[in-house]
Amino acid sequence: MIGKPFRPPSFVRPTSSSGEPPAKKRRISSDVPPSRPTPGERKPLIAVENPAPPPSPSPDPNEQYYTVLWRKYTTKKNKTWDGDGVLAIIGAFATLTDSDTGKELGRGACNRPLLPGSALSLGGKELEIDSVIRKEEYLSGRIFLGGTAAPPAEPKRAKPGYKPLAAGKGKARQTSESLLGRKTKGKDGGEVDKNDEYSDLAAEFKPASSGKHFKTPLLSTTVVPRTNSSAPQPRHDPNQANALVMRRPASCPKGKQIVDVVVDPVLGKFLRDHQREGVQFLYECVMGMRCEGEGAIMADEMGLGKTLQTITLLWTLMKQNPIYESTPVVTKALIVCPAGLVDNWRREFRKWLGNERIGVFVADGKNRRISNFTMGKSYNIMIVGYEMLRVVQEELKKGKIDIVVADEGHRLKTANNKAMQAIQSLNTERRIILSGTPLQNDLGEFFTAIDFVNPGLLGQRSAFKRTFEGPIVRSRQPDASEPELEKGEARWKELVSLTSQFMIRRTAEVLSKYLPPKTEHIVFCKPTPAQAAAYRSILGSPVFTVALGNTDMALQLINVLKKVCNSPALLKSKKDADDTPSEMLQSLLPLIPPNVLNSNSSSAKLRVLDSLIHRIYTTTEEKIVIVSNYTMTLDMIERLLVSLSYSYLRLDGSTPAKNRQALVEKFNKTPKKTSFAFLLSAKAGGVGLNLIGASRIVLFDIDWNPATDLQAMARIHRDGQKLPCKVYRFLVQGGLDEKIYQRQVMKMGLANAVVDNKASASSFSREELKDLFRLDERETCQTHDLLGCTCDCKGSPEVKLEPLEVVEDEEDEDDVPLLRKASQVDMDEQEARIKARRAAKQPKLTMLFDYRHIDTKHLRDMEGAPETIDLVDGGSPKMDVDEMALAMDDDVFLEVLKEPFCKVGFVFTKSSS
């Protein structure tokens, strides 16, 4: 190296011998190419007119909408923009809104035309117009969601460096490939067909003490035998009759091939049509084929088989991959559910897949060694309760979870929920929520669920509240203005469009051909005189006045009144939820007579229940489930059953988890003499239980959350039910129960609008619900009056009013309508028309109009009268007893209503038959 001469780098330009750079060559006119004109021959530029774009595509010139750049006023030399915004100019009045948060930044007058590039000041902000947007785009709120708003036209494509999740290494990968059923050479040189899931493990775990071959478990195999063909071969035959084939991805990694993913016929043959559709939907969501995220919400109503659909999806992902010769999509799956459903999930896996095909690890008080699941290969599924998840979350982080399924996911109500934070700490992109009621109280909880499965899809929480929640809720109020209605309708449609990409919702109507009919009765029980007196005494006490101005005392008063609605004697019960009576309760007890506190005979609900179960027990072979939110109420009903010598079983919070399923199976399999009634706590066993041994269910009290009652009602109307189902919901007419039911209708109306994509509106204004504590002792039903319904309260549908007739003067050329004389006006008819028009202002209010409305006094008035009644009121026939019985569709309950001292004042009934 030392003796070699220096060589200049190759990028150094060689110099001349004199050491000076060569002179530049001067260009002359002769060197100009012929195609290029000389400067003297160059023609002048042609002037092209560039017309300005129209100011707004909106048909209304008084409404203009723009996207803008904005910044706070500053004197800096180098100015930068602070953010993007939306400028709405309506009638020369401008409003600036931030695009990211939906927050209003300023208002002011603006009466000059604006074009892209125009600058103006508004609310202390400097603006520059970026572009013009359409009114429809502004009203839908899509502009406030940024890039996540527009649904992808094409499925998400795999990147060039795509690697499937859960890619194993070494021996684990060989085992997964061997499970596909390849043929290999045996010891004798012949081919051994390894088409069973555990055939490869036979040689590896051959007993050393025995020379015999391992005996393959007697499992029905559905795996297609391998061939020598180079074409991609699916695990199961896609050409088989009734085969369920998943959608293929739109792209494939370089050097790979796409193969069909076919659901295992072991499960596919049991799937109904709606379940096949649900499995396909979930598969497309978690594979990123429907939206930018990889999450999904299955919002099917109770009884539609969400568990089976989930098991089918997990089994498919654990055995197959659309990319040929790649490891399965999912290796480890986590199922989080309420503690009472852990055993139910384990039984479902065993029912559909057996113990041999898949390993299921249940994390409970005994099995807390999570490393057996995260690090071992024996378990692919882990089932854990929400409470236990917080205990084992640190251990779970040490492993890799490919997918998380949150059963009863409506429990993840807030972003601060500890269970939600535990799931998010696992950093798993594929998340599924199973919930029959994803929207329970408000759109805020719905946003939390959406942001959990697909983070960031709807932007920030504050922006969602301003953009969607506020306008939708305001438009559902009865006194909403026309602009609020238009804006709320557009935002609702946009929200439904966005959520439909990853949320599937089917109602119980799809089961109509599989399940027997169901009849639901809303039973309004008139309070007994002693019960009404106790209610009035509490409302007339000084405590009531103080409670109206104190939130904590108001909540205590609500609990007191709910007990009075069930039975005033519950106030004196020693088995209180707080163990010691509160100061409020101690001050109220002296106001109620001792004989009322010492006996449950003053409970109107208990009297109706007594008559009902007596009729059921003596006239039918059916069994009944009685549900309550309070153990004290269950104690009261239990004493009633003991006094009548009726057999019963009971499940509440004190029942050990290991004994609960045994109670359910005993009730479903034993006759009426062994277990006639099943007492159920809605808090402890209101979800997941299958009580098809009964065909009638009574909801003795009502919950603020409609989902709690809907879950409890679905305990009997499920797969396997053979008898027509009857559901009774007990309310105290005019009391707090009825007010809570009205609130439920409001919440369910909002849920139907967003989740079920049904148009509905809030039934009652805020002013009408301020009388929450008032006892309405009128003969009529307050809920029916608030509807403005014009039916005859005898079970017939609502009266449809004909349009008003206009009396015109034929001789008058201008056809001016004439006024009627006051003596010719039927005031009753006119009042009915006014009520009907008030209801017509809310055409979306349809939920309670689906029920038949029956005033029970008509039943008792008709009892003993001739079945066919003469025409009255100018030829309008009355409804006879047989027709009212047809509307009721429940002979047993009809006989209860006919009793002379029956405490039922009003009934809303709806039948699926």
From TrEMBL:
GO cellular component, one term: nucleus
SUPFAM superfamilies the UniProt entry points to: P-loop containing nucleoside triphosphate hydrolases
Domain spans labelled Helicase C-terminal: 612-770
Descriptive protein name: DNA repair and recombination protein RAD26
SMART domains reported for this sequence: DEXDc, HELICc
UniProt keywords, alphabetically: ATP-binding, Hydrolase, Nucleotide-binding
PROSITE patterns: HELICASE_ATP_BIND_1, HELICASE_CTER
Gene Ontology biological process terms from the UniProt entry: double-strand break repair via homologous recombination; reciprocal meiotic recombination
InterPro entries, sorted: Helicase_ATP-bd, Helicase_C-like, P-loop_NTPase, SNF2-like_sf, SNF2/RAD54-like_C, SNF2_N, SNF2_RAD54_helicase_repair
Cited CDD domains: DEXHc_RAD54, SF2_C_SNF
MF annotations from Gene Ontology: ATP binding; DNA translocase activity; hydrolase activity
Region span, Disordered: 1-63, 149-194
Compositional bias ranges of the Pro residues kind: 51-60
Residue ranges occupied by any Helicase ATP-binding domain in the UniProt entry: 287-456
